[in-house]
Specification:
Nuclear Transport Factor 2, Chain: A, 35% strand, alpha+beta, elongated, single chain, 34% helix, 4 helices, 2 domains, eight-stranded antiparallel sheet
């Protein structure tokens, strides 16, 4: 009987001593050490999520060097908006009451610019050919791509790469069908691609 009492006393002593040494259970029922470990894991997970969001935001942000280069390339630009495009860093801006988009490559160099223009600004032979071959289409938009001859990076329009040269793109529509034609400076017209509806 003394042995059972002595064993019970020793067990009670270690239980009381354990609580006194900080191995107390907290409100959640877990020992304090395990609770701290879980809290540390939660903090690390939150920090990791914040870092991930920051990396994603930086991927979507136009670089400082592109902004600096743009300011040198277009000192008279107004209403400037920077955007991270799929293939280039893009800058939407206006000057002399016209809207432009500038495209910068991975080295922060200007690849070229686009500007919405009018059908009657196309070379006369291109206007005539389009009017004859696509007379049942409506002209939606004409875009002039002005290549930066100092940069040989191929340009992308309508999810399609093309040789970097000054080019017009004419968007035409008939019913629900939309297409883009490419017109070079000599007025040569070629089919570029069908556009999504």
């Amino acid at each position: 009987m003394k042995q059972i009492f002595l064993t019970g006393s020793i067990l009670a002593f270690f239980t009381i001593a354990g609580k006194a040494m900080g191995q107390d259970e907290n409100i959640s029922g877990l020992p304090e050490k395990e609770t701290l470990t879980l809290q540390k894991k939660d903090i690390k997970r939150e920090e990791r999520d914040v870092r991930k969001e920051e990396r994603q935001r930086k991927k979507e942000e136009v670089s400082y060097f592109t902004k600096e280069q743009f300011d040198m390339d277009f000192p008279d630009a107004e209403n400037t908006h920077f955007y991270m495009g799929k293939y280039f860093e893009e800058v939407f801006f206006s000057r002399q009451d016209k809207a432009y988009t500038a495209f910068y490559d991975n080295n922060n160099r200007l690849a070229g610019t686009t500007m919405v223009t009018q059908f009657d600004e196309l070379p006369a032979n291109a206007q005539k050919m389009i009017g004859k071959k696509y007379n049942n289409y409506t002209v939606n938009q004409v875009i002039l791509f002005d290549d930066n001859e100092m940069n040989d990076t191929d340009m992308w329009m309508y999810e399609t790469s093309f040789a970097d040269e000054d080019t017009w793109f004419v968007e035409l529509q008939k019913d629900t069908k939309r297409i883009a034609l490419q017109v070079n400076k000599d007025g040569m017209v070629s089919f570029f691609r069908e556009l999504s509806k």
